[in-house]
Structures are given as structure tokens and as C-alpha cells.
Design goal:
This protein has four helices and five strands, in the order ββββαβααα. The chain has 138 residues and is α/β, with parallel strands linked by helices. It has a single domain, classed as Alpha-Beta Complex (Protein-Tyrosine Phosphatase, Chain A), CATH 3.90.190. It has a five-stranded mixed β-sheet, with helices on one face. Helix 1 packs across helix 2, helix 2 crosses helix 3 and helix 3 crosses helix 4. It starts with a strand and ends with a helix. 38% of the residues are buried.
Length: 138
């Protein structure tokens, strides 16, 4: 599993299986098709919470309530100082959307959030709709 620290304890990454993540207090899985490995997370030492928040990587933005809930959770984890991982299949679009919107809520401009994510995770936010949401907010 590859993951990159984007900003102060907020990590963005791809597929969890077969190398399960270690060292994270909280993990948010965004893969639509990910329920098959969730029971295996119970054996990951130190992991307190796994949240499955399925999003699809489509040229349509997920509903606002879903996005606000996900970002609110990550903001709370960050405020507590917990090392958290937001992941999807490739660690590019769905995770980039949630991390980018979180960075905006932390005071970063949309342009700076997109630039930071793309610099640290080349190929991230290739979904134009998701990138635009980070740039302009939701």
C-alpha cells in the first residue's frame, strides 16, 4: 500500500490490500467495492477506527451531505492530532477530493490545495469535476 503524507498527519493513499496499513489511528476507505477486506482491518495493530464511506470516481460530484460528513470526520481526527489515512483504489481522485476539501476547511486556498496534492501524489485529482470542487469549494 502506498501512501503520502499530504499535510500534518493527513495521509492519502491507494489500495489497502494485500499490504494492510500500519501506524494510522483512523482510516477512511472511499472505494465503492471495498467491503471484502474490511474485516481484515480488525487485525491491524493501533487502528482505532475504519470508516467505509464509499464514493464513485465519476464525472459527477457526490452529494454534499456525504462530502461534508467525510470532511468533518477528517477535520475532527486532525484536530485530535491523530494520524489518519484517506484512501481509494489508486490514491488519486476520491481520496484527493476529500483531502483537498479538508485542506480548504483548514484555511488553504483551493489552488494551493490542488497544487500540494498533485505535487505529492502525481496523477491525483485527474477527475476534472473533483479538481474543480477543490478549487472552488462545495
Amino acid at each position: 500500500m502506498d501512501a503520502t503524507e499530504i499535510f500534518e498527519g493527513i495521509w492519502q493513499g491507494g489500495e489497502l490490500w494485500p499490504a494492510m496499513p500500519t501506524g494510522y489511528k483512523k482510516v477512511m476507505g472511499l472505494r465503492w467495492e471495498a467491503m471484502d477486506y474490511v474485516p481484515l482491518l480488525g487485525i491491524v495493530q493501533g487502528l482505532a477506527t475504519f470508516v467505509w464511506n464509499p464514493l464513485q470516481d465519476l464525472p459527477v460530484l457526490p452529494d454534499r451531505d456525504t462530502l461534508h460528513d467525510a470532511v468533518g470526520m477528517v477535520l475532527g481526527w486532525h484536530a485530535m492530532g491523530w494520524r489518519c489515512l484517506i484512501h481509494c483504489a489508486e490514491g488519486h481522485n476520491r481520496s484527493g477530493l476529500i483531502v483537498g476539501l479538508t485542506l480548504r476547511e483548514l484555511g488553504m486556498s483551493g489552488a494551493d490545495a490542488v497544487a500540494l496534492i498533485q505535487a505529492k501524489r502525481p496523477g491525483a485529482l485527474g477527475n476534472q469535476v473533483f479538481r474543480e470542487a477543490v478549487l472552488t469549494g462545495i
